[in-house]
Amino acid sequence: MKDTLENIKRLLTLLVKEDFKYFDRIKDPDKALLAMFSQLKPFLSGKRLSFINKAEKFLRNYRYLSEKDRKRFIKELHTVFVLRFSFDEIEEDVRKRKSEKLVSSSSSGFKEEKEKYPVRAFFQSPETVKGLNKFASSRFKKLGLETIFDVLFYVPFRYEDRTTVTPLNLLREGETALIKGKVVGIVETLTKKGKKLLKVILYDTHGKITLLFLQQRVFGFYKKLFSQAKELGKEVIAYGKVKRSGLSFTMVHPEVEVFEEKKNYSKVGVILPVYHLAEGLKQHLVRKDIEYVVRKAAPRFPEYLPKEIVGKRKLPSISRSIWEVHFPTSSIEELEEFRTPYQKRLIYDEFFLFQTALALVRKRIKEDKGIAFPVNEEMLEEFKKHLPFSLTGAQERVLKEIIADMKNSKPMNRLIQGDVGSGKTVVAAAAAFFAVKSGYQVAVMAPTEILANQHFKKFKEFFSHFGIPVGILTGSMTPKAKNMALKAVKKGYFKVVVGTHALIQEKVEFENLGLVIIDEQHRFGVKQRAELKNKGDRPDVLVMTATPIPRTLALTAYGDLDISVIDEMPAGRKPVKTKIIFDDEMEKVVSFLKKELSEGNRVYIVYPLVEESEKMELKAATDMFHFWNEKLKGFSVGLLHGRMKQEEKDDVMAKFKSGEFQVLVSTTVIEVGVDVPEATVMVIEHAERFGLAQLHQLRGRVGRSDRQSYCFLITKRTVGEDAIKRLKVLEATTDGFKVAEADLAFRGPGELMGTRQSGIGEFKIADLRRDLELLKIAREDAFEFVEENPELKGFDNLKDLMKYRFKGNEEFVEIA
Ligand code: ADP
Ligand code: MG
Predict the structure, then answer these.
(1) Distance, CA of 344 to CA of 69 (rounded, Å)
(2) Cα of 609 from ligand 1 centre, angstroms
(3) Ligand 2 centroid from CA 84, angstroms
(4) What are the domain boundaries of the chain?
């Protein structure tokens, strides 16, 4: 199938290449395509299949088509094949349709022991477990597992799925697969070298496979097993690595069992844990050792968490959770994503211990006294009165968290995380409003001038309802304007000051800065945040970000910031429809744009920054400007690029906002935060040159009203398969977290180092990217718990566990 697919793509590419240069030289492409289509069809279903059926009809009439129509048709075929016929996806689809699940009827066999041992008892060497294999402890040593506790919490890093049966025609060379089939032949023969060999041939309705056994001493056993199965017409299941010899598949020494409905399988039909190994260790032996210890010890492991928390979070018991991660009964999908309640319990615990330690440390450090803002419900109501919309549930929730923080005399240190367009600005504005109402000044810092200007306008308009003066401070202001602004800030005339980095310059002084707001936090360093904070006397701090970046997570883990998540879009928002378009089909885009524009919508057209030289960038941008001006005659087009003066930029932005410009041709200056709700189309040229996160940000510029919006990712036909794969992520989802995940997967683990914590923050099971929500609740619970019980009275097991977990760690020594 793979070959056929590649041949089809090759032929189509050849036909369309260099504007159909070779089109005439290729004889009867219709016949070749029809032949290959019929080979491909058995593997297709759904949309792909109906597309091919339609295409076949066309191909049968190909001879009668005009040359123009032929070309158009072939081009369309090429587009669809490149975008929708990836081998992996087709294969995945086939597997899903054909795979059969084999479920062992055995339960996990867990039985909770009533009588538990104290946690301390588990800090003994595993050798003390009666009946343990005498080589086990040396193996444990190699793995760094010194105590029973270590062994219990040595969680599998992945699982081996021996429950999904792969049909024989879908095997892939090199994979380890579970297969099922009837026995057709059992032969004892000789290898080329004259060694004895047992060959067993299995078949299912899709194909056949040969199982090979080379060790003579097992011949007898297997001959009996297979011939009985053959006589009774029973199927056999085998698990092993797939090899290819010539045209057929083989498995050498697979693990084999006779298939029975509802049977307790031991080797197949189960999901097995896979552990990290050390040099010279074998998986099946380590598995056996760990299994032995878990069976003996896990049921006696005591519940060490407060009962209230276990109840409130509906956590399964710790002993059962330990058991289940080693002997899973959940589905492989859940296990692989670490979504089973048992895995989650262990992740939660890991966070809980860490956060409890942090909370204790925090408690010990003398509590900073900050500002207790007299915020009340009326202020919130007053604020809402002048909003043109009602807040989303998520916005309300986050505001409640902020209000609680602000009321408290401890300085707020909060991060608001929310996808592009989720409405972070209004939440920030509310916080600013509360601070001003309480008699304090607010500083709002944004990473670019365009953004600072935008915030300035928004805040100014909003605060005008209350007669509250808002000022701006940016680097591009004239010295005179700047001086005036500085004075107004110092005298306390400006209650809210919006600005760029200019805000943290030495000269800037406030009368009484009470709240610091930082937008798009990832653009600033920790240092800059501190600098702005130092402009006041322990002001509250609120930072906002659209990017679920590793550093944010790291900061959380260090206990520096509390997190609020806005996980809901304003009502009526429709996901942006996203489509990959090849650059030779620009005319389609042009006519689409004309339609949207004539309906009163606005359009962005974005180019990647050309970095070679200033001149080139200018040229690229202006060329494009002329191109689009020509194409979209009758509509007004504006140009925005990095080489323009600030006033020019602001002017262009203002005109695009007001609708004087309907189209904005731009470099990526507009990437972050720009808000023009009337814009419904984002065209991104050379999309393959952008990173996924950046594309997501750009796309976030549209879809900011209840109108349907679109994003076109323009790229070349000849762009690599990897690039297409990346762009397809955006076609498939508008969820920023998913995009970020895919982004990390593409970029590889090297760049993930940002999430790694030094020392105390090294998590064994938890993954900060995946488990953010769990971290949040564990943190909440831990802080609340420590608040009520700073001595951890009555929780000796928990104390012991923390001592064990954090031993040798300076920062936590004292609490121990
Ligand atoms: P981001 O989170 O990306 O910074 P913004 O704060 O710029 O998003 O908000 C995006 C758009 O949605 C803005 O035009 C804003 O006025 C609007 N908006 C925010 N909250 C709501 C809401 N609750 N209902 C309707 N529109 C909203
Ligand atoms: Mg924003």
Answers:
(1) 57
(2) 28
(3) 34
(4) 2-97, 106-160+276-337, 164-268, 377-566, 577-733
